[in-house]
Known about the structure:
This protein has 69 residues and is of the alpha/beta class. The protein is built from one helix and four strands. A four-stranded mixed beta sheet has the order 1-4-2-3, with no helix packed on it. The termini are far apart.
Amino acid sequence: MRKINRIVLHTTAGWAHETPESIQRMWRVNTGYHILIPTDGSLVHLADISKITNGVAGYNSDSVHASYI
């Protein structure tokens, strides 16, 4: 397991009707988030915590990225 030093909270800055599938389509190659939080407050796991995602350049190797819609 990789060492986690940061939890980064993002927003999709989109519309409330966006779906987890539409967010995933936006990230064509490597998802930017580990966890997506839809407007109902549920958690959608997009990537395993052990994987590096493409959330913030220069900080991805030791961060977990979560985003809310």
